[in-house]
Amino acid sequence: MSDLSTTDDLTLLGRSENRLPTHPDEAELEVFPNRNAHRDYTIELDFPEFSSLCPVTGQPDSAHLKITYIPDQLCVETKSLKFYLASWRNTEAFNEDVVNRILDDLSGATQPRSMTVRGKFSPRGGIQLTAEASYPE
Predict the structure, then answer these.
(1) The whole model's pTM is what?
(2) Can you give the residue ranges of every domain in the chain?
(3) Is residue 107 scored above 50 in pLDDT?
(4) Measured at the alpha carbon of residue 85, what is the angle toward residues 43 and 81, in degrees to the nearest 5?
(5) Are 80 and 12 in contact (CB under 8 A)?
(6) Angle at CA of residue 115, ends 26 and 29, nearest 5°
(7) How far is CA 54 from CA 2, 9, 10, in A?
(8) Average of pLDDT values for 70-94?
(9) Measuring CA to CA, which of 7, 87, 102, 110 is 20 to 30 A from 53?
(10) Annotated catalytic sites, by residue?
């Protein structure tokens, strides 16, 4: 996580970058100061094209992710979030682990007042799985 006092330090926003990180460990979630930290308000981010790999079969898992949070002092920059989420594309992880890791990474970067990550995964074997994790617990 970058400790940013202004948006001048953002490395992806406004730049033509097309090399995606290949794993979430390589991705950097950039943040910027919340200019409305005096107020509780909700930010909702939808990512309908999330994908990762099943660690057992190696087959792709796809999901509609919804991230909802009330920021405190920092907000996540959305282009860095897009790159971070795309970095999961070739990462093997169980659906429940994906949702919890994304929550840990995002809440660690932004220290929000509250945050929920919800992943509605495409059906496998006739069963549709939705996992949701929240911060604070």
Answers:
(1) 0.86
(2) 23-135
(3) yes
(4) 45
(5) yes
(6) 20
(7) 31, 36, 33
(8) 97
(9) 110
(10) 54, 61
What pLDDT is stored for residue 5 in this prediction? 53
Q: What are phi and psi of 116, to 5 degrees?
A: -135, 135
CATH class as words, domain 23-135: alpha beta
Give the position of tokens 């897009």: 82
Both structure tokens of 45: 């981010």
pLDDT for 1 equals 47
Question: In this model, does residue 116 exceed pLDDT 50?
Answer: yes
- Asked if residues 119 and 65 have their Cβ atoms less than 8 Å apart, the reply is yes
Residue 81 tokens, joined: 């979030």
Percent of the chain with pLDDT over 90: 83
Alpha-carbon separation of residue 137 from 89, 97, 100 (angstroms): 28, 16, 12
Give the number of other Cβ atoms within 10 Å of residue 12's Cβ. Answer: 16
Q: Which residue bears the tokens 């994906």?
A: 98
Output the six-digit token pair for 57: 């079969």
